[in-house]
Specification:
There is one protein chain. This protein is α/β, with parallel strands linked by helices and 239 residues long. 33% of the residues lie in helices and 26% in strands. It is built from 8 helices and 9 strands. The strands form 2 sheets. The chain has a 6-stranded mixed β-sheet with strand order 5-6-7-3-8-9. The chain has a 3-stranded antiparallel β-sheet with strand order 2-1-4, with helices on one face. Strand 1 and strand 2 form a beta hairpin. Helix 2 packs across helix 3 and helix 3 packs across helix 4. The longest helix is centred in the C-terminal third of the chain and has 16 residues. The structure holds adenosine-5'-triphosphate. The site of adenosine-5'-triphosphate has 12 residues, from strand 2 and helix 1. Adenosine-5'-triphosphate binds next to strand 2 and helix 1. Belongs to the ABC transporter superfamily. This is ATP-binding cassette domain-containing protein. Keywords: ATP-binding, Nucleotide-binding, Transport. It comes from Actinoplanes oblitus.
Length: 239
Amino acid sequence: MTATIEVNGLRKRFGTALALDGMTFAVRGGHVTGFVGPNGAGKSTTLRVLTGLDRPDAGTATIGGRRYATLARPLRHVGALLDPHAPHPSRTGRNHLLWLARSQDLPAARVDEVLALTGLADAGRRRAGGYSLGMRQRLGMAAALLGDPPVLLLDEPFNGLDPAGIVWMRDLLRELAGQGRAVLVSSHLMSELQDIAGHVIVVGHGRVIAAAEVGELLHAYASLEAAYLTLTAGVGGIR
Ligand SMILES: Nc1ncnc2c1ncn2[C@@H]1O[C@H](COP(=O)(O)OP(=O)(O)OP(=O)(O)O)[C@@H](O)[C@H]1O
C-alpha cells in the first residue's frame, strides 16, 4: 500500500453551509503536511470524508488509491485521530485498543506496543472516561498507530498536550514521516507546523487557496504564521 492521499473535487453541503467546494489536493509520503485554514474552512469535513464518516455530494477521496469503504482492514492502511472523545468512557484505554485490534486481526501484543509508544503503559489500565484531554490525544494516537499504517490523518493532535507532550508529539510526527509515511496534520498552531511540516495546504471556504513547501514560504515570509495570515487575509472564517 502506498503512502498517498488524493482528494479530488470534493463538494459537501450541510443545509445552507457549503463545507467543501471543490477541495482538491494530493499528499505524498516522507514528510508532514500541514492542513491549515480558518475555522469552518472544511478541514475536518475533508478528513471525515477521507475516513468514510461523511459522504461527499461530489468528488473522490482516496488513501493509497482506494476509497476508505473498500479497505478490508482500514487501520492497516490509515490511522486517524479525529475525535479524542470517541473511546467509550467506561472502557479502559487498553480495552478500547484491544477491541480495535481484534476488529482488524491485529495481535494483542501490538496494543501493548502502542500503549508504551504513547506513554500510556500504566494509564491504559484506567477507564478512558477519567482521562485528561492530553491523555485522550495519546490514546487517539495509539489507536491511529495500531495497524502500523502508511497514512496518518490527524486533526489538531497538539490540543490539550502539556509542553513535554507537545515536544513528544512533534518528535513522533517527524519520525513517522521520516519512515516514509504520509502524515496530514490539521492544526492552527503555525509555530508547531513551521518546525515539523515539509509542505502546507492552506484552505478557505471549502477549497485550496495555496499549497506550498514550507521552505519556499519561509524564503518569502518571516514565518509560517506571517505567510498564513497573508494568504488567508480576506478569506474570512465561520460562515
Ligand atoms: N455535521 C455538520 N452539520 C452541519 N454543518 C456542518 C457539519 N459539519 C461541518 N459543518 C459545517 O461545515 C463547514 C466546515 O466545517 P469543518 O468542521 O470542516 O471546518 P474546519 O476547517 O475543520 O474548522 P475548525 O478549524 O473550526 O475545526 C462549517 O460551516 C461547519 O459549520
